[in-house]
Amino acid sequence: MHFADCDPVHVSGIRLWNSMLAPNADGIDVTSCTNVIIDNCDIRAGDDALAIVGYDHHFEIPGFQHLRHESGNILISNCNLQSASSGIRIGFLDQNNVKNIHVSNVNITNSTRGIGIFVRDKGSLENITFENMTIETKLRTGDWWGNGEPIHISAVRGKENVKPGQVKHVIFSNIVCKGENGMLVYGSGESMIEDVSFIHIRVELTDRKLNEFAGGNID
After folding, report:
1. Phi and psi at residue 168, in whole multiples of 5°?
2. Does 63 score more than 80 pLDDT?
3. I need a surface site. Which of 23, 70, 177, 183 has the fewest CB within 10 A?
4. How does DSSP classify residue 191?
5. Coil, strand, or helix at residue 83?
6. How many CB atoms lie under 10 A from the CB of residue 188?
7. Are 114 and 150 in contact (CB under 8 A)?
8. How many Å is the Cα radius of gyration of the chain?
9. Confidence bin at 17 (pLDDT 50/70/90)
10. Distances, alpha carbon 219 to alpha carbons 116, 144, 145, in Å
11. What is the pLDDT of residues 96-152, one digit of tens each?
12. Residues 15-54, buried b or exposed e (16+ Cβ, 10 A)?
């Protein structure tokens, strides 16, 4: 399910199950949209269960080119998510900014990565809050996105001639994590990660024989 350049959007009470073995099989994608509510949903997907991005173009949408429309004012609550990639992904190759996102009372289970926040293009990601969540992650064999991290934040150059934006003003509060890898916060000299808070976070690392040779990548 893909929403692009929309205002407003309300998705409530749906069950969306894709194959957990299919790549590029996202649950819900929100691209350069504002005033979005997603609540009381059960989503299982081989790719990201929920993706919030600020692309100014899209390969699959005719006429969706050079759009200057930020993503923002997005509320996600009371959802159960599973993904062979990220339960929730915010950002990646964004040209537009993504800001003002609040996620609460969400359970992420059986996922290769819990929360993924990425800057790879000029768009910045800011004012994002996660609270009252449980996250369970695992390594998978094969080249899946994710390496078992409950929380992943990274900001590095993704294009040769484009200086990346920033990740700033992010709060994680009251979150219980159980997974086969630790959390990752990874910035760069040209894109410093700014003002990230971890409040009442519990992380339990688990181990199994698969950890010695399995896992995807850290993007």
Report:
1. -155, 150
2. no
3. 23
4. B
5. strand
6. 13
7. yes
8. 16
9. very high
10. 10, 10, 7
11. 889 999 999 999 999 999 999 999 988 899 999 999 999 999 988 777 788 889 999
12. eeebebeeeebbbbbbbbbbebebbebbbbbbbbbbbbbb
From the list 114, 43, 47, 102, the residue with the least C-alpha distance to 76 is 102
CA–CA distance, 6 with 36 (Å, rounded to integer)? 9
CB burial of 146-179 (b: ≥16 within 10 Å; e: otherwise) equals bbbbbbbbbbeebeeeeebbbbbbbebeebbbbb
- 7 half-sphere exposure, CB direction, 13 A CA radius: 10
DSSP string, 103-162: EEEEEEEEESEEEEEEE-SS--EEEEEEEEEEEEE---SSS-B--S-SEEEEE---STT-
Give the C-alpha separation, 211 to 219, whole Å: 18
Side chain identity at residue 219, one-letter code: D
